[in-house]
Recover the amino acids of this structure.
């Protein structure tokens, strides 16, 4: 009996692939850039398992071109790049890697919040440009973090992890979520529920941790920026399309809000001619929310385990669409 065929769309962080190689014929895309759509469309025609990334578009056309595909395993917690309904109709389970990246992403959100508030990137550039002449009372001033009001949009695992960090800074913490959490959780984390518009008006810092959907697409655009404090700072480590980039540029350039930091953009990577790159009051990082050695290794292990389970016809440990079973 021939071995199943597997295609992995990028080199993985250090992880144990021995078991997968023992049971399957594995091909790994060797380039830094993701395989072009046409290449992926051709590869799926003969494979039984696919391990992909957020940068791979797994749409209906891809799925229809893959008659032998038994499982798709994604190296990410999100899966908005995959046509889940189309995969479910075809009986293909979709794996992902939830939970493991919570703390790393919360750490990065907090890193960006502090770096933006204290103007760390601007200060570094200031020194390297030779502008540091003396100590100045008004040089590179920023807002206090301790005691400020933190607004968290989306209150799942990552949002809650950010709230725990906020408590250490004695912040007043507001959160908005589609469903209000129970009072016991609110009390344990020291947070208060607020309607979205109220959170926008009251928060000194706003950090986004909601999933991308039709409801949250451009959730932050001109009307929302107009409600925010002119001193407010926005952090996005969720999905780029939650923030309208043109509206953000206008808000940052005309002083509607003070600053922002993005680990995700629309599109990704951000085009080098984007006007956002001209702003000093904006930090942009290249989607590194989960980029710690430990987290990426655990994600890779989870993704491989999902893939192996699917190839063996077993339920995936972390399945997006369990209704296929």
């Amino acid at each position: 009996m021939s071995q199943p065929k597997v295609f992995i769309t990028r080199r993985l962080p250090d992880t144990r692939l021995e078991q997968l190689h023992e049971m399957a014929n594995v091909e790994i895309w060797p380039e830094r850039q993701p395989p072009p759509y046409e290449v992926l469309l051709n590869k799926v025609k003969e494979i039984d398992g696919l391990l992909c990334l957020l940068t791979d578009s797994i749409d209906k056309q891809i799925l229809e071109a893959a008659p032998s595909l038994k499982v798709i395993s994604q190296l990410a917690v999100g899966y908005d790049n995959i046509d889940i309904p189309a995969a479910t109709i075809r009986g293909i389970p979709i794996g992902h890697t939830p939970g493991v990246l919570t703390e790393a992403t919360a750490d990065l959100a907090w890193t960006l919040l502090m770096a933006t508030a204290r103007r760390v990137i601007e200060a570094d550039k200031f020194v390297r440009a030779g502008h540091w002449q003396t100590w100045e009372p008004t040089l590179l001033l920023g807002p206090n973090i301790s005691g400020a009001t933190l607004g968290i949009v989306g209150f799942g695992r990552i949002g809650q992890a950010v709230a725990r960090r906020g408590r250490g800074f004695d912040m007043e913490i507001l959160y908005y979520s589609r469903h209000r959490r129970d009072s016991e959780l609110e009390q344990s984390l020291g947070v208060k529920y607020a309607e979205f518009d109220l959170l926008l008006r009251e928060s000194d810092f706003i950090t986004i941790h909601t999933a991308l959907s039709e409801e949250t697409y451009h959730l932050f655009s001109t009307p929302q920026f107009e409600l925010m404090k002119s001193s407010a700072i926005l952090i996005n480590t969720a999905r780029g399309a939650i923030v309208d980039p043109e509206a953000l540029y206008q808000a940052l350039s005309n002083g509607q809000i003070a600053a922002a930091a993005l680990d995700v953009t629309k599109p990704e990577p951000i085009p080098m001619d984007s006007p956002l790159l001209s702003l000093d009051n904006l930090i942009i990082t290249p989607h590194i929310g989960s980029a710690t050695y430990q987290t990426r290794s655990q994600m890779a292990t989870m993704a491989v385990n999902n893939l192996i389970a699917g190839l063996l016809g077993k339920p995936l440990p972390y399945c997006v669409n369990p209704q296929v079973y």
Summary: DSSP finds twelve helices and twelve strands in the chain.
